[in-house]
Amino acid sequence: MKIAIGNDHAGPSYKEAIVNLLKERNIEVINYGTNSEDSVDYPDFIHPVAESVATGDSDLGIIICGSGNGAAITANKHQEIRAALCWNKEIVALAKQHNNANILSLPARYISIPQALAMVETFLDTEFEGGRHQNRIDKIPCA
After folding, report:
1. Backbone angles phi, psi at 55, to 5 degrees
2. pLDDT tens digit sequence for 3-50
3. Is 131 left (phi over 0), alpha (psi -120 to 50) or beta?
4. Options 1.10.3720.10, 3.40.50.150, 3.40.50.2000, 3.40.1400.10; which CATH number does 2-138 get?
5. Global pTM?
6. Known catalytic residues?
7. How many angstroms separate the CA atoms of 70 and 64, rounded?
8. Residue 58 in contact with residue 98, Cβ under 8 Å?
9. Which terminal residue of the chain, N or C, has fewer Cβ atoms less than 10 Å from its own Cβ?
10. Which of 82, 83, 54, 60 is nearest to 1 (CA)?
């Protein structure tokens, strides 16, 4: 499995912890994020993650910004992306089970690193249920 990860200045410490977790699970990581807390523009780091997932270069993506909103909005501009802004494990599970989310968006200023790690594990371990949910997903794209 290969995961693309990207973050703005709110997420370097979260990204570091997540990358360590992914490596422990023998998951290849493509890092598109900044390693600095100096202010940057999140779209510069989120679009490459979305593109990597959309083209199949990565299986899944994880994006991190202060609220998670800007990152999710940016990623969801890509037709093939279903980025889910999540703030607990239950929302993550539903995003995978019902929405087949392929990018997890984390709000660094509103969750702890241990919470983020638990959410990443849920994202990786939860399967899409398909069935009636696939019919709904098929109706999402506008083009």
Report:
1. -85, -10
2. 999 999 999 999 999 999 999 999 999 999 999 999 999 999 999 999
3. left
4. 3.40.1400.10
5. 0.96
6. 65, 98
7. 9
8. no
9. C
10. 60
